[in-house]
Amino acid sequence: MPVIKPEQVTAGGERKNRKELRLHSSIARDLGLRIVSGRYRPGHVLAGEIEASGQLKVSRSAYREAVRMLAAKGLVQSRTRTGTRVSAVEQWHLLDPDVLAWVFAGEPELEVLQGLFELRTIIEPEAAAIAAARRNDENLEVMRNALERMGLHTVNVEAGRIADRDFHSELLRATRNPFIISLTNGVAAAVHALTEFKQREHALKRDPLPEHWRVFEAIEAKDTERARTSMAELIRLAITDMPVKRWPDNWTDSRLVRDSG
Amino acid sequence: MPVIKPEQVTAGGERKNRKELRLHSSIARDLGLRIVSGRYRPGHVLAGEIEASGQLKVSRSAYREAVRMLAAKGLVQSRTRTGTRVSAVEQWHLLDPDVLAWVFAGEPELEVLQGLFELRTIIEPEAAAIAAARRNDENLEVMRNALERMGLHTVNVEAGRIADRDFHSELLRATRNPFIISLTNGVAAAVHALTEFKQREHALKRDPLPEHWRVFEAIEAKDTERARTSMAELIRLAITDMPVKRWPDNWTDSRLVRDSG
DNA sequence: TCAAGTTGATTTCTCAGACAAATGCTATCT
DNA sequence: AGATAGCATTTGTCTGAGAAATCAACTTGA
After folding, report:
1. pTM
2. Rounded distance, CA B61 to CA A140, Å?
3. A176, B251: Cβ pair inside 8 Å?
């Protein structure tokens, strides 16, 4: 099962749909997707470097660099003689932008969705409050511009989703907290993929713009408390927009939780 | 300036102080430390592969694998012709366990400390509340065992610090939220290094055990509200224990914030 | 004059093959 | 039965060679 090479993608007649990944990155994404999708389970030992690189029709060095990237993201662990094995889920760097994107590339499980929204429910209202206290005029302008673009395009098209992501990114940036900002890149990627996922099922009926403006106005007024509550409401509404039949009370059966080595 | 090779460390007469990193991991740590410490600033272009690997006295492939690992952690970006350059701080995966450990390996800046505690103040009280609702008996036993070890050794020795870390890790694990658990590994590593840092200045006068037991009892009783408040108090006390003269109101001058090339 | 294409130089990227080091397994010895 | 020494297997490291990408300068044509 050869990996999709960048040249083959562009040569396939389609426009270059992504960033034209290099070979090692393509292999890493390929293996990463198989791991987070559950095709390669924790504990599974990958084929040896010679065999694996041979199957993928790539050199050993390219394959090794891909494995090294996955190891850096906590997905695999290599040892001499033992081989390269998929790590326990607890070792995965789930907030790594790439890993998160891979997790949400397929149909994400209900429990995973809930986990992400739970994290957002914890982080983002507090982040909005901090942003209200520390934001400067430039943050405000970027956020205003993002919301105007969002209103222009709607989140049903790519440009609108990008604007949505820009708004949340800039909000977290306004907190001036490097760790919260670092969360941005990952969560923003996931939310972006998620909005696309919602769109996949059916176009969004409700207009999410009003609650975004309410958050903006609170931050503009440096009203921390109103920023917190309005952001909490925004996320609550976003959850209700998910095309989900019922939200489980627990998710101990989730694949991400169950597997552990 | 050759990188410290694993063999040299063990051959140096000292006991193997760590996990005997492989060569590529050693190089990655070496470069990673230089980057997060500010020696290589964002925008800085590293020496070419041939020159750099020559200076470090290693092969190009080992050096390349190291660079690939750093790229996977968002610290650098490689492009043909342009070379490999240090990414903007916003691109760094600051919550990656390795990156976090590297950041806290030296004397962390005041503003970085504050950033981490701010994140903990947001996350951990809520996590404690969720843990109180979802914990099972095994979580409880692991946490109880950790606190008993913590009381036995005190946080002034390594065994006690490990017990402290185990307690917080198991607490976050009890939330059953994969994303929160993923935060664990990084934050736990940082807090561990941090407690060591506190110890470096002067032994802890106050005994942090009572507030830990209060959190434990709240979770044991499945009292979500008390778990939240007692954890908030635990973190507040931990902040006061930091050997810091004054906490700044803002940190716009932080290196982590200022650099964005 | 200026835009568009061409060429050249530089750097990472990819490939190939060889040997070294680590380590789990097994047979052997005490 | 347990320790120990070899053996086999897998990743780790090294070397050397082109290929591909891309920035800068140059050339060409309207």
Report:
1. 0.88
2. 46
3. yes
The confidence score (pLDDT) of residue A252 equals 42
Three-state DSSP class for residue B85: strand
Question: SS3 sequence, A187-246?
Answer: HHHHHHHHHHHHHHHCCCCCCCHHHHHHHHHHHHCCCHHHHHHHHHHHHHHHHHHCCCCC
> What gap in Å lies between CA A26 and CA A6, rounded to an integer?
8
Distance of CA A88 to CAs A154, A173, B139, B213, Å? 40, 32, 18, 30
Q: What is the pLDDT of residues B114-158, one digit of tens each?
A: 999 999 999 999 999 999 999 999 999 999 999 999 999 988 888
Query: End-to-end distance of chain A based on CA atoms, in angstroms?
Result: 26
Interchain CB contact of B72 with A (< 8 Å): yes
Q: How does the average pLDDT of chain A come out, rounded?
A: 86
Q: Name residues 171-230 of chain B within 8 A of A (Cβ).
A: 173, 176-186
Residue from A154, A139, A112, A158 nearest A216 by CA: A139
Confirm or reject contact between B77 and chain A (CB < 8 A).
no
Please work out, in degrees rounded to the nearest 5, the angle formed at the alpha carbon of residue B6 by the alpha carbons of B4 and B7: 105
Residue-wise DSSP of B180-234 = HHHHHHHHHHHHHHHHHHHHHHS---S--HHHHHHHHHHHHTT-HHHHHHHHHHH
Residue A247: closest CA among A236, A255, A256? A236
CA distance A240 to A192: 17
| Residue A12 CA, nucleotide C13 C1', distance (Å) | 22
Chain A residues touching B112 at Cβ < 8 A: 178
- What's the sign of the alpha-carbon dihedral B151, B226, A117, B237? negative
pLDDT at A193: 77
Q: Which residues of A touch B127 (CB under 8 A)?
A: 122
CA distance B229 to chain A (A): 15
Tokens describing residue A8: 């083959």
Distance CA A32, CA A86 (A): 10
The helix (run of H) or strand (run of E) holding residue B83 is: strand B83-86
Strand partners, B45: B85
> What whole-number distance in Å separates Cα of residue A217 and Cα of residue A227?
8
Percentage helix, strand, coil for chain B under 3-state DSSP, each rounded to 5: 65, 5, 35
Nearest by Cα to B1 from B63, B83, B56: B56
Listed as ranges, the nucleotides of chain C within 7 A of a protein C-beta are 9-18, 21-24
**Per the structure block, which two tokens stand in for A203?**
């176009």
